[in-house]
Design brief:
single chain, about 500 residues, alpha+beta, Nucleotidyltransferase, domain 5, Substrate Binding Domain Of DNAk, Chain A, domain 1, 13 helices, 23 strands, about 30% strand, globular, disordered N terminus
Length: about 500
C-alpha cells in the first residue's frame, strides 16, 4: 500500500508544481534572497502575476493543502483503506536554505492539518543521490569507498555536495552541501529580457498583469524547447506562441507602438536573429544559446570550486539530477568542462529529486553522517580573560567582577563531520524563583571559530523557549539537547531534578 501512495504523491506533486509554478518560483526566489541576510519571517510577502502582494506563508501552505486534498480525493474515489495519519509527507528543499527557512516551511503546514511529526524535509542533492544509489542500475557507485559529486540542478537553484558509499544502505557526506540561485528559471529570465527589449517593459507588464494566460503562453513555448538545445544544434529554434497570445501581442503593440508584433520584431535590434512565422518565433541558434551562458558558466564555476576541495580531490564521477539536468546543452557543457570525469544523467532527471525524497521518507538514516555547514552556538556572558576577550566586550559588575558579554558559546563547528541524530547536551539554570519559562537565542556563523555573537559573519537564528509544566522556588537545572546532523536542527529539554521532558519550542526571528 505504501508503494501505491508514493507513486500518487509523485504524480500529484508534478501536477501541483506545474499549476502553481509562478507562485512557487517567486516564493523560492524570495526565500533564497532572504536566507543570506537571514530575514526570513512569517509575514514576508511575494507578488502574484498581476503584481499584487500575497503572504508567502499562505502560498506554501495552499500548495501543500492542494496536494493533500488531491490525495484524499484519490484515496476515497478508489475505496482504499488508507488513513491520513499513516502518511509521511516529505518536501525536498535547496541545501542553502538555512534553518530559519526550514522552520518557515514548517510554519506553513501548521494550518492545513498535517501534524509536525508526519512532515519531513529532505535536501535536494541528497534525495537525488539516494534515488540513483537504489534505483539506477548504470550508476557506478555500488562499491564501498566510491566517491562522487552530486549536482542538483533545479528551476531556481543549483545544489552541490559529495558522497561516499559506506555500505549497501548508507552514505557519508564528504563536504557540506551548498549552492547558488542559478537554474532553469534564470535561463527563462534571459529570454524574458530579450522579449522585453523587443516589445517594451510597459507592454510586457500590461500583458503579465491583465492577460496572465497569454503571458504564460508566450513563455511556455520557450520552456518546451530549451531542454532540447545542445552544442550540436545548428538550425533556428522554433518557439511556438499560442494564437490567443499572439492576438494580445498584436493588440498591445498597435495600441502603444502603432504597429503589429511582427513589425515590432523587425524594428528591434533582434530583427536579424528572429523571424515571426504564423504562430511561432524562429530564433537564431546563437541567440538561443546565449540565453544559457550566464547560468551555465556560474554552475560550472561552482562545480570547479567544489572539486578543488581536498575531501573530493579523488572524485571521478559527477551525478547530474533535477529539472535543469534534462537540458542537453547543460549536459554537454559539463561533459566538456570535465573530460576526465564520468558524467551521469538519470532518465527523467527532473523527477529524480522527488522520487529520492520518497525513498528518504522511508529511510531518513540513509545519510549516515553530514558535514556541518555552519558553526552553531548561543550567546552567553563569561569571566573576562584579557588574553581572549577584547575591551569592547568588557562589562564591570557592581561587585567589581569583570565579565565578557556576547560570547559565542559553540555547540558545533563548521566543517565537523557528525553522525545523523547526534545529540549535544548543554546545562542551563533558571534565574528567578517560580520561573515559568526559560528563553535563549541561537546563532550561526560561517566562521569556523567565532568568538562573539556580534561578529559580521554571525547571524541570529531564532529563540528557544522552554516552558515548565509547574513552577518551583528552587533554582532549576535544565539539560538542553541540540540534535544535529539531520536535515533540520532540533532542540529538546529535560528538567534534571524531575527527569521530565519539558516543552522546547524553536521560533525563528
Amino acid at each position: 500500500m505504501d508503494r501505491v501512495i508514493n507513486v500518487i504523491l509523485l504524480r500529484k506533486t508534478v501536477t501541483i508544481k506545474q499549476s502553481m509554478a509562478h507562485f512557487q518560483t517567486q516564493t523560492q526566489e524570495r526565500i533564497c534572497q532572504l536566507t543570506r541576510p537571514n530575514h526570513i519571517s512569517t509575514e514576508m510577502t511575494i507578488q502574484d502575476m498581476s503584481g499584487k502582494p500575497i503572504e508567502a506563508l499562505l502560498v506554501f501552505g495552499n500548495c501543500i493543502l492542494k496536494l493533500r486534498k488531491s490525495l484524499v480525493y484519490f484515496i476515497k474515489s478508489k475505496g482504499l483503506d488508507v488513513k491520513m495519519e499513516d502518511i509521511r509527507w516529505v518536501m525536498p528543499v535547496p541545501t542553502f536554505w538555512n534553518d530559519a527557512a526550514k522552520q518557515f516551511i514548517r510554519k506553513s503546514i501548521d494550518f492545513i492539518g498535517i501534524p509536525e511529526d508526519q512532515f519531513q524535509i529532505a535536501l535536494e542533492p541528497e534525495a537525488a543521490s539516494i534515488f540513483c544509489q537504489q534505483k539506477l542500475p548504470d550508476f557506478n557507485a555500488s562499491l564501498p569507498g566510491t566517491k562522487y559529486l552530486v549536482v542538483a540542478l533545479g528551476g531556481g537553484t543549483t545544489d552541490i555536495t559529495a558522497h561516499e558509499k559506506i555500505s549497501s544502505s548508507r552514505l557519508r557526506e564528504l563536504i557540506f552541501a551548498t549552492g547558488n540561485s542559478y537554474g532553469g528559471a534564470t535561463v527563462d529570465d534571459r529570454f524574458l529580457q530579450m522579449f522585453t527589449a523587443i516589445a517594451g517593459k510597459d507592454i510586457v507588464s500590461d500583458i503579465k498583469q491583465n492577460y496572465p494566460m497569454a503571458y504564460i503562453g508566450i513563455f511556455q513555448g520557450f520552456e518546451n524547447v530549451k531542454r532540447n538545445i545542445s552544442t550540436t544544434t545548428s538550425q533556428k529554434v522554433k518557439v511556438s506562441i499560442p494564437l490567443s497570445a499572439l492576438s494580445v501581442l498584436d493588440l498591445k503593440c498597435k495600441q502603444v507602438l502603432g504597429k503589429n508584433f511582427r513589425s515590432t520584431i523587425d524594428a528591434s535590434k533582434f530583427s536579424s536573429a528572429i523571424e515571426l512565422q504564423d504562430d511561432s518565433m524562429h530564433v537564431d541558434i546563437g541567440l538561443m544559446k546565449a540565453f544559457f551562458n550566464v547560468t551555465i558558466n556560474n554552475i560550472l564555476d561552482l562545480i570547479k570550486t567544489r572539486l578543488q576541495e581536498l575531501a573530493v580531490s579523488d572524485v571521478t564521477q559527477i551525478l547530474l539530477a533535477g529539472e535543469f539536468a534534462e537540458s542537453s546543452l547543460m549536459q554537454d557543457k559539463v561533459k566538456s568542462a570535465f573530460p576526465n570525469t564520468r558524467v551521469i544523467v538519470p532518465e527523467a532527471a527532473g523527477l529524480t529529486v522527488l522520487k529520492g525524497a520518497v525513498l528518504f521518507g522511508h529511510n531518513p538514516s540513509y545519510l549516515q553522517s553530514r558535514v556541518m555547514r555552519y558553526t552553531y552556538g548561543v550567546g552567553i556572558s563569561d569571566e573576562f580573560d584579557p588574553a581572549i576577550h577584547d575591551e569592547a566586550h568588557l562589562v564591570v559588575q557592581k561587585n567589581g567582577s569583570k565579565l565578557a558579554r556576547h560570547i559565542f558559546d559553540v555547540i558545533i563547528r563548521k566543517n565537523q563531520l557528525v553522525d545523523a541524530g547526534t545529540s549535544i547536551d548543554s546545562k542551563y539554570l533558571t534565574i528567578d524563583p517560580n520561573q515559568k519559562t526559560m528563553e535563549f537565542e541561537l546563532y550561526f556563523s560561517s566562521n569556523e571559530k567565532p568568538v562573539y555573537i556580534d561578529e559580521t559573519d554571525c547571524k541570529p537564528l531564532g529563540s528557544v523557549i522552554i516552558t515548565f509544566p509547574d513552577v518551583c522556588q528552587e533554582e532549576r537545572d535544565v539539560k538542553v539537547s541540540f540534535v544535529i546532523g539531520n536535515t533540520e536542527l532540533e532542540v529538546k529539554a529535560v528538567d534534571k531534578k524531575s527527569r521530565q521532558t519539558v516543552t522546547a519550542e524553536f521560533n525563528l526571528f
